[in-house]
Amino acid sequence: MKNENIIELKDVCRYYRLGNTEIKALCDVNLEIKRGDFIAIVGPSGSGKSTMMNLVGALDLSSKGDIFLDGQNIEHLPESELAQIRGKKIGFVFQTFNLIPTLNAVENIALPMIFHGVGKEERMERAEEILKEVSLTHRRNHFPKELSGGERQRVAIGRALANDPEVILADEPTGNLDTKTGLEIMKIFVNLNKKGKTIILVTHNLNLIKYVQKVLKISDGKIIEQKKVKQHKIK
Amino acid sequence: MKDHFLLAFSNLKRRGLRSWLTMIGIFIGIAAVVGLISLGQGLQGAINKQFEQLGKDKIIIQSKTMGPPGTATGKLILTTKDLNAIESVRGVERVVGILMKSSVIEFKDETKINFIIGINPKDAQIFSEMQDYKVIKGRDLRDGDGFKAVVGYNNLIDEKIWKRGVGIGSTITVGNVEFKIVGILGKTGDPYNDAAIYIPKDTLRNILNTQDEEDEIVVKTQEGFNPNDVAKSIERKLRQERDEKEGQETFTVQTSEQLLNSFTNIFNIVQGVLVGIAAISLLVGGIGIMNTMYTSVLERTKEIGTMKAVGAKNSDILQIFLFESGLLGLVGGIIGIGLGIGLGKGVQYIATIALGTNLLQASITLPLIFGALTFSFFIGTLSGILPAMQAAKLRPADALRYE
To answer: Residue A101 is part of which domain span?
Structure first.
């Protein structure tokens, strides 16, 4: 039987060393994210949002405590296994899109499948399906520099969906977009959540939190508030 | 792996100009190495051919002088007495003594200094067997020829040695003695041989006022005898004859095989040094690749972070970067081989025109091409190891944060 919590943090701390000074980016954090949650992590700059995202996404390891992903403690896994977990269970969406400039839209979407050993035919078939899902079939062969900001972010979302992960981690996904395009991107996340994906949105844009189900406030490396909110529809 | 290769290739294409500039170092180095080795192999082949012509049964005795044959003086000089002593050694079939001197030669109203070779007319046939010596016009020297001469090919050609080349029946003067030209030799490609003038040894002795001097003695061994054993016997006999102690000889006795080995050793050293110098540019090329790859890792740090975030393992990143550096080396190598072949063939063409013989042939062999390709790929990959490791070791969170 599947664990109810897709992500669990137990007494997690993350310290950084800056010369002789130790900086506590995150301290004694306990968190449970359930399957199908749509959660926004908010807080001012330097509050620890990105550190939290890195830990939850297995991009970084904690200095103390345990992180469970789908019931598995990832703290002591070697980098190669962490890479596989990232590729299979988590899809990342970044503020600056982070597309590979030498690959076109469909190739960017197919990229994670290369590292997961998916054959070319299957990979391209799946990438074409995703391209349709994010309404970019007409931009299939365009390179990132030939796409608008909104289109790039849709390609990035497509790439995050490539290996059909359970969790989508989005770090300020609308940060580089205008309001209208930002809302279009949010609409995609809402739809993905409706299809059962767990969405974790890291943002400092408080206008977006009305579209999520839960809000987690962080300040000075600590969770200061966790609450359910009424989810509004995007018009 | 194919996908990693394609990712690497697309990255190189993206940095087109930089990739080409980086490859310059490799293709100059490979071109120099391929060119030099192909010419070296060709030259080695030509030397082997010359020695084959000389025959494995020949032994050459010269005085231990620092200069070319004909420059020995005093006790160093070989004599007819030595020649006669050699004749008595077991296993010796035939002994030929040659006299070589530089002398003033006059033809019509021109005067030149040229190489005169004195041979006994009865030895002319065996001499032509040993040298690349073929009469193409007229006849060879023969018994009774006192003041007749056979000349090298270049004497025939206008503006080569003489304004108007000599012909059969022309008269040349060697040390105030007139010689009638009775034969002209074919081209050998060796400028000394092609310019030389061959006259009867006794006549040359009279002109030089020497009685029994020999500058080079060539021995043909009897069939069934090992030339090395015969050479040792000759050495013993000459030591005895000249009253010299072992290790302090004033002469050298070498079989044609030993002579070839000496040539090959010297040749290999010279070629090794030249290829070594050319290889320095390969080292510089390799450092160029390393530099480009380090820059690439820095520029693409965020991209590396992204690939790791979407599931790339350290080994995936390592492979992509190694393919990139290996490809730089390989493509550089392919172009370098092309240039190297051009270089070798160009030198061959110039040598053919300048020497008038196809003695120097650039030898382009499959092992040379595959060796150069493998080596260039190896240099590229080796140069990329450290940058690729740096890229692979990047922590995803740090790489994604990199600005």
So the answer is: 36-60+78-228
Q: Chain B contacts of A84, Cβ < 8 Å?
A: 311, 313
CB B181 within 8 A of CB B151: yes
Using a CB–CB cutoff of 8 Å, tell me whether B299 touches chain A: no
Phi-psi region of B200 (alpha: psi -120 to 50; beta: other; left: phi over 0): beta
Q: Cβ(A203)–Cβ(A235) under 8 Å?
A: no
Task: Residue B312: list chain A partners with CB under 8 A.
Answer: 83, 87, 115
Flag whether residue B303 sits within 8 Å of chain A, measured between CB atoms: yes
On whether any CB of chain B is under 8 Å from the CB of A60, the answer is yes
Contact B314 A101 (CB under 8 A): no
Nearest to residue A39, comparing CAs of A159, A234, A224, A203? A203
- Partnered with residue A38 across adjacent β-strands are A199
A70 within some domain: no
- Which residues are CB-contacts of A120 (< 8 A; sequence separation ≥ 6)? B3
* B395 vs A contacts (CB less than 8 Å): 59-60
Domain assignment present for residue A31? The answer is no
Contact B219, B58 (CB under 8 A): yes
**Per-residue pLDDT at B316 exceeds 90:** yes
Shortest CA gap A194–chain B (Å)? 23
Q: What is the pLDDT of residues A179-213, one digit of tens each?
A: 888 888 888 889 899 998 999 999 888 888 888 89
- pTM comes to 0.74
Q: Which residues in A136-151 are b (16+ Cβ under 10 Å) and which e? A: beebeebbbeebebbb
* Interface mutation target, options A61, A95, A102, chain B, most CBs of B under 10 Å: A102
Please give the ipTM for the structure prediction.
Answer: 0.91
Q: What is the pLDDT of residues B111-156, one digit of tens each?
A: 888 889 999 888 887 777 766 678 889 998 888 888 999 999 888 8
| Inside any domain, residue A234 | no
CATH of the domain at A99: 3.40.50.300
Is residue B302 within 8 angstroms of chain A, CB to CB? yes
Contact A103 B310 (CB under 8 A): no
The full set of domain ranges for chain B reads 2-51+261-401, 65-249
Our count of domains for chain A comes to 1
Residue A208 lies in a domain: yes
The structure tokens listed for A48 are 């620890």
Q: Specify the residue for token string 């359970």.
A: A166
**Number of A:B CB contacts under 8 A?**
75
Which positions in chain B touch A94 (Cβ < 8 Å)?
306, 400
